[in-house]
Every structure is written in structure tokens, then in C-alpha cells.
């Protein structure tokens, strides 16, 4: 029964991370830490890394700490919260950096309706070059209007 509890904690953490990501993106990245996120909105950013990549580290720190403290003295629920954050980070990398921005050319010919809608919503987000008046701040939840064909 304990394993079911730990699986549920991991899944719930993953789901909550979408809300955390939306809030962080809207109020922190497009707010007081715009200085780190602004280069991500530049078209065809010329460097391998962006200042925006610092957010990977910012999100990794609590995950690493939770994983560490979640095995001391024995494995406990903190480990599985850290694992949920880690899994979300992996999903974020694959969806945002690989699929949407194609920083790595692994998935070029996507035909899936959900993934195409996800790309479209993110493209709308990047249409606005400034920190104000943005939309579509989440990563995995896509508004229905982006599933329609234009």
C-alpha cells in the first residue's frame, strides 16, 4: 500500500508542477526575473544557451534537495515529491526545448493533434516580444481554441 501512496505523491507533484510553472512563467519570468527570460523571446537566439536556461537550475535545486532529504535516514515521501519535480523537468525539457523550440532536432515530423496544438499555443505566447500582455503561460495544458485548424 505504501508504494501506491508514493506513486500518487509523484503523480500529484507532477500535476501541481504545471500550476507552479504557469504561475512562475506569468509572474516571475514575465515579472521581476524578465532579465533572465527576455532572451528567450528573441527570434533566432544566436547562442547555444540562453539566460532563460537558468530556470532549469532554479527548478532543479528543490528537486535535488527533496531527493537527497527523501532518502535520509530512510526513503520517505520527500523523495517522491522530488521525483515528481524531476519527471516534470524531464517532460518540460522534451516538450519545450526539443519539441517546441527544436533546440535538438529529435522530433521534426509531429502529426499528433495535441502536440501541434501545444506548439501553436507556445507560438502565440512568443508572438508577443515583451513581458506584458502575454498569453499561454503553461506548458502541458492547452486551451481548446488551439486545437482548431486555421
From TrEMBL:
The keyword Signal does not apply. The chain crosses the membrane at residues 6-24, 54-71, 77-95. Residues 11-138 form the Fatty acid hydroxylase domain. It comes from Arenibacter algicola. It holds the Pfam family FA_hydroxylase. Keywords: Carotenoid biosynthesis, Membrane, Oxidoreductase, Transmembrane, Transmembrane helix. Belongs to the sterol desaturase family. This is Beta-carotene 3-hydroxylase. InterPro entries: BETA-OHASE-like (IPR045019), Fatty_acid_hydroxylase (IPR006694).
